[in-house]
């Protein structure tokens, strides 16, 4: 890891800790010292203090955050509390100790106020701008809007966008795939999620506005979402303009009675349990948050897939051969069923996401104490009003679950090995699990397979850039720098 990125990473950790202090989380975290009578009977997790963390600094600087987290896991096991600057965060690693983290009731464990930074991004009408009951209903709207049954209708528009995009590439050339995927995924999101008004008439402006809001996803904005920094001010201006554009689209559909086949329409048609329909502001906030949840994560997934696949010729060949088999079978054209049969490609993407999960750390706040039991049987009490985190980047690399976890090996998900299943329900956490499992997983895989199927069938691809390092200074860690590839039309 070079100095710039490791320094950025270290700063990121410090900023994160300061952030938690600064946003009053410290006052609550201090209550962890087991003053609750319910938690006196159990032992608290071992504590890793600032001095122990400092000893790991060389590992952090030389080998990066996952190595440091892994060292802590090896030394302290699957449950331990990191204590620094007076703040305590308990890490839960592996399927044995994360069941309650993922499955606990919202009243027992939730995101609490940890996602407050999303309010100025999507507005007060949705998500963490609303009370818990409304938020849970709005999560249902997202789930229903992305149901697998509706996914079939997205395949054709996805195909059209992808074919149109790659038709513009020349006979041969060099491109930065990271940039290409970002643009292509915004086109697909516009078409399938936002709808044709935006896609056909105002794509460029909407894309630029989304980009402006996305750029505010820095640790400083996460730390101080309302501070009038230039980034936050640009974010606010962009959100106001985007809200205006999308509100006009929604109002025009409502007043004309026009009905479209996109996700925006599903959100317009959503109803609360009391029979009230979603308001215009709610529809706009819901569609914006959906695009943010899906676009960046998918473009990172695609970039990591490119990095892994193009540096592993055996799996690249296997994925190409699968394309030949499937296209032969579906002579009339690829459809939902054809993409669902692309198991090798699916595993290649899944393996890239195992090693490079865009959401490297998932966080919750406890509202009631609970007990976790380690594999060896030892139990610990996790107190009420405490921050807990599970690092997907470590969960996905546990050696007793994944054979040679540092090796890119998509075959580990095949029927004979099923490494993600034999370790238990929460062995593979790139899409989270349980109550907040990613509702866009099927949609994400479909759009990624549509993109990669086209690339593999139509182009010879060669990675020119070195395999990218991870930029840990971002809220969603990403491949550092550009990812140049050489392509040649087949
Ligand atoms: C490879 C791509 C993707 C990855 C790796 C990913 C990952 C995740 C993860 C880890 C979470 C849970 C966070 C937590 O537990 O705190 C999540 C939640 C969510 N994702 Fe995805 N996601 C992807 C694509 C998508 C897409 C394409 C959409 C929508 C079109 C989407 C919509 C959502 C929504 C709405 C939630 C919130 C669920 C809830 O809180 O109940 N995601 N995603």
UniProtKB/TrEMBL annotation:
Coiled coil, from the record: none
Alphabetically ordered keywords of this record: Heme, Iron, Lipid biosynthesis, Lipid metabolism, Membrane, Metal-binding, Methyltransferase, Monooxygenase, Oxidoreductase, Signal, Steroid biosynthesis, Steroid metabolism, Sterol biosynthesis, Sterol metabolism, Transferase
Top-tier EC class: oxidoreductase
Signal peptide location: 1-29
Cofactor(s) needed: heme
Residues that, per the record, bind heme: 438
Cellular component terms (Gene Ontology): membrane
Catalytic activity, as annotated: a 14alpha-methyl steroid + 3 reduced [NADPH--hemoprotein reductase] + 3 O2 = a Delta(14) steroid + formate + 3 oxidized [NADPH--hemoprotein reductase] + 4 H2O + 4 H(+)
GO molecular function per UniProt: heme binding; iron ion binding; methyltransferase activity; sterol 14-demethylase activity
Pathway(s) this gene product operates in, as recorded in its UniProt entry: Steroid biosynthesis; zymosterol biosynthesis; zymosterol from lanosterol: step 1/6
A Pfam family per the record: p450
The keyword Iron is annotated on this UniProt entry: yes
Subcellular location as annotated: Membrane
EC number in record: 1.14.14.154
Topology of the protein relative to the lipid bilayer: Single-pass membrane protein
Gene Ontology biological process terms in this record: methylation; sterol biosynthetic process
InterPro entries for the chain: CYP450_sterol_14alpha_dmase, Cyt_P450, Cyt_P450_CS, Cyt_P450_E_grp-IV, Cyt_P450_sf
PANTHER family: 24-HYDROXYCHOLESTEROL 7-ALPHA-HYDROXYLASE (PTHR24304:SF2), CYTOCHROME P450 FAMILY 7 (PTHR24304)
Function: Catalyzes the 14-alpha demethylation of obtusifoliol to 4 alpha-methyl-5 alpha-ergosta-8,14,24(28)-trien-3 beta-ol.
Family: Belongs to the cytochrome P450 family.
Protein name: Obtusifoliol 14-alpha demethylase
């Amino acid at each position: 890891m070079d100095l710039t990125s490791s320094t950025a990473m270290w700063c990121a950790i410090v900023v994160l800790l300061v952030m938690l202090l600064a946003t009053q989380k410290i006052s609550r975290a201090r209550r962890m010292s087991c003053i609750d009578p319910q938690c006196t009977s159990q032992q608290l997790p071992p504590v890793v203090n600032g001095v122990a963390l400092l000893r790991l600094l060389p590992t952090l600087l030389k080998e990066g955050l996952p190595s440091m987290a892994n060292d802590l896991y090896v030394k302290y096991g699957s449950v331990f509390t990191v204590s620094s600057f007076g703040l305590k965060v308990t890490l839960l690693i592996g399927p044995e100790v994360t069941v309650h983290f993922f499955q606990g009731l919202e009243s027992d464990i939730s995101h609490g106020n940890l996602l407050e930074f999303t309010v100025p991004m999507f507005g007060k009408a949705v998500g963490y701008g609303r009370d818990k009951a409304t938020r849970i209903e709005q999560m249902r709207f997202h789930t229903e809007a992305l149901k697998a049954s509706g996914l079939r209708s997205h395949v054709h528009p996805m195909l059209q966008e992808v074919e149109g995009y790659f038709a513009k590439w020349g006979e041969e050339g060099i491109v930065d795939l990271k940039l290409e995927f970002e643009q292509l995924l915004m086109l697909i999101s516009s078409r399938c999620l936002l709808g044709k008004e935006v896609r056909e008439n105002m794509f460029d402006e909407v894309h630029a506005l989304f980009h402006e809001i996305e750029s505010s996803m820095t640790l400083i904005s996460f730390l101080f979402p309302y501070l009038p920094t230039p980034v936050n001010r640009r974010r606010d201006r962009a959100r106001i303009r985007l809200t205006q554009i999308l509100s006009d689209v929604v109002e025009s559909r409502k007043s004309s009675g026009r009905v479209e086949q996109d996700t925006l329409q599903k959100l317009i048609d959503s109803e609360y349990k009391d029979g009230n329909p979603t308001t215009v502001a709610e529809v706009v906030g819901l569609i914006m948050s959906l695009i943010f949840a899906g676009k960046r994560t998918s473009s990172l997934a695609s970039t990591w897939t490119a990095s892994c696949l193009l540096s592993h010729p055996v799996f690249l060949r296997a994925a190409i051969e699968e394309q030949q088999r499937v296209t032969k079978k579906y002579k009339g054209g690829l459809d939902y069923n054809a993409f669902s049969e692309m198991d090798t490609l699916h595993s290649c993407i899944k393996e890239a996401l195992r090693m490079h999960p865009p959401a490297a750390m998932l966080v919750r706040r406890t509202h009631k104490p609970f007990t976790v039991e380690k594999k060896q049987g030892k139990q610990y009490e996790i107190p009420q009003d405490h921050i807990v985190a599970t690092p997907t980047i470590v969960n996905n690399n546990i050696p007793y679950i994944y054979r040679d976890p540092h090796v890119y090996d998509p075959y580990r998900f095949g029927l004979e090995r099923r490494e993600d299943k034999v370790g238990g329900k929460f062995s593979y956490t790139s899409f989270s699990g349980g109550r907040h499992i990613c509702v866009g997983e099927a949609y994400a895989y479909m759009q990624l397979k549509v993109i990669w199927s086209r690339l593999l069938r139509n182009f010879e691809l060669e990675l020119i850039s070195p395999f990218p390092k991870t930029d840990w200074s971002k809220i969603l860690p990403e491949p550092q720098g550009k990812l140049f590839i050489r392509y040649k039309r087949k």
